[in-house]
Each structure stands twice: as C-alpha cells, then as structure tokens.
Description:
Rossmann fold, alpha/beta, 5-stranded parallel beta sheet, 5-stranded mixed beta barrel
Amino acid sequence: MTVEIVTFGCRLNAFESEAIRGIAGAAGLEDAVIVNTCAVTSEAERQARQAIRRARREHPKARLIVTGCAAQIAPERYAAMAEVDQVVGNGEKFRPETYADNAPRRSVGSRAALRTSLAPAVEGFDGKARAYLAVQHGCDHACTFCIIPVGRGPSRSVPMGEVVRQAQALVAAGYRELVLTGVDITSFGRDLPGSPSLGQLCRRLLALVPELARLRLSSLDPAAIDGELMRLLAEEERLMPHLHLSLQAGSDMVLKRMRRRHLRADALALCRRARELRPGVALGADLIAGFPTEDEAMLAETLAFIDEAPLDYLHVFPYSTRPGTPAARMPQVPGDVVRDRAARLRAAGEAASARGLAARVGTTAHVLVERPGFGRSEHYAPVALPENFAAGTIAEVRLVASERDRLIGALA
C-alpha cells in the first residue's frame, strides 16, 4: 500500500482528504493510513476510533496518522490510543514536513495556528463524478451546540482568483459538476478586500468558467444568503436548483437557545422566496433532534415547519453533547427521548422525500451519472438509470416512476 485515507464528516473533509493525499505523497509518505476525523457528534468520533482500530488490524506495519477536527480538539485522546503513531492538527495537516520520517508524534498547534491554514488545490477525486471545491474555512459564529469553531478556527476565505483557477483546472480534468464547500460558505468573502459575497463569487465563477456545466452549493446558513445569490438562483440555469439549509430547528425558542441567527419566520420566508424565484427548487435541511430544553410543543413546531416550507428531504442528527459548549451545561433531554424524536423527524423526512420525488414523475431531468445505473438530477434527487450511461456524463432522462428513496429514469 502507499497512502490510504479514511474520511469522516463533511464535504470539506472529503476535499481536504484529497489535498492531504497529494501533500503526503509528494512528501514521500508510504505505507500509511490517515484517518481524517469529524467532531460534530459523539457518534462520528466513535466511528473514527473504531476505524483506527480496524486499520491497525488490517495494516499492522503501516504508519497510522490521525488528523481532522476531533484530533485538533482532543489530541490527547487519540495520542493515548496504542494503535496511533501520529496525531496531526488542522493547522499542520497541509504542511509537507508533517509527513516526514522524523516528524513528531504529536503536532497540534494552538488556535492561532488555524488562522492562516487553507487547503491547497486538489487535482481530482478518484472515482467521483463531481468535484468539491473548498472556498472557505473556519467559523466566526458561536452556536451553543457546536464545537467546530474550536477545531477549525476563525472564518477565512480562499481568494476569488484562486477559486476560479481551481475551478478551471477541475473542469479541464473532466468534471461536469463542482460543489462549493466550506464550514460556513455564506461567510465567504468577509475577510477579503472589498468583501465579495458568495453570490458574487458564484456569478464570477459561472462567467469565467463557461465550460462548467453545473455549479452546486453545500450547506447554507439561512440568515446569511445574500441577494446576489438569490438573483443568480433565478437567472442562471447552471446554478443547480437545490438549496440545503443549516436550519437545525423550526421552533423559535430552540433557535434562540441554539444562538442561531434566524427565526422560524425568516426560514419560511426564504423557502417561499426560493420557490418563487426558481419553481421546482429542491429544499433540504439539517435538523437536530432533542436539543436541551426542547419539549413536545417545540418539536411539534419543527415537524410543522417541514410541511409548511415544504422541505423535500432532511438530514436528522440526534443531539450530541459536546463538552465545552454552552449547550452541554443546559438541562438535557433524556437519551431515549432524543432517539424517539430523531426517529419521528426521520419519518417525517421520509414522507417529505416520497412526496417530493413523486411530484417529479413525468418530468425530464438531467442526471449526472455517478456510476452505471445511478446518478443525481439537477435537484440532487437520486435516479435509477439504464445501464448504458457512462459515469461522469450528464444524461437526459424521463422520470417515469418513484419508488421508496429514488426516481426511475428512462431514455428521453
């Protein structure tokens, strides 16, 4: 083996894993496993520890390196694992010397070390039909449930010219769809000269990379979506009609206790405006079940929001206590109640998804083929395809049926 990377968490982590692969390879690292961790939930950390133990069993002689947010936040926890050879912080993981033979067992700098850390360009994503492009790192907000600002540092943006250059290179490499990603991409540009917005970045990308067929956005903060981005949603077909909102709750009381910057009415107005500007747009959301102090009435408000928006799909997370966060000191909801509420939200999400998919039957879709027999439409809906489409191509198909969690496409 050369370098195997095991990735947990968000699309930004997926992008950074490819950057690490290139840096470690260029530094001469061989016979190594790198585990890129996530700290959003305790379950993500449990899975990472499990993967570390499995990697050691499968590769007993490999150099085992742990990096990512969990390693940055609690390096001692991973350094104490007998299976681990090296723990690397988020501020050090893009430095070639980190992967030298004589590198220290533990290289995790202070929060200050994160202030200038940006991922380098990535040439491609092996086996992937779409490419991720990191445009922003870190977060300046203080949501009471979230530990990620501790692991990622303050918000910082990739200069617009560099984003365009990387996009041009990825399109030249054959990628038809790019996904802009980051920790909080709606904060893009605030630290750059002139404070360009995310919408301005998207408009420039689409203008300067005319060969780019599809531009998609990762999670968006409902409180910070700028007017230029909404205009672009209405005007530009190459910006995919798909918005994934970092909503977290549909109850004002819960949102206030989370210290989110939007209220229920704000999010509903955004959903309605998006549907006015781009009829048929797909709207998804992250939701946290069982946040501290949440009661049945607050949960009912969130369940009602799903139908009022209406949302097309959900990503549901049972609340996970993160030591060091304000929410960890609030009165906690019992674990069995958290699990029950997560199950109820997921059931509502499955019903919403089934309705949304069924509504698209009878229309034509342009599907990015991810592998033979499967792809995703411009709305990011999963589509079963005839087998004769090559991965990485965009197929025009008729959506003839829906079943469970996907649409069925036939030759147009």
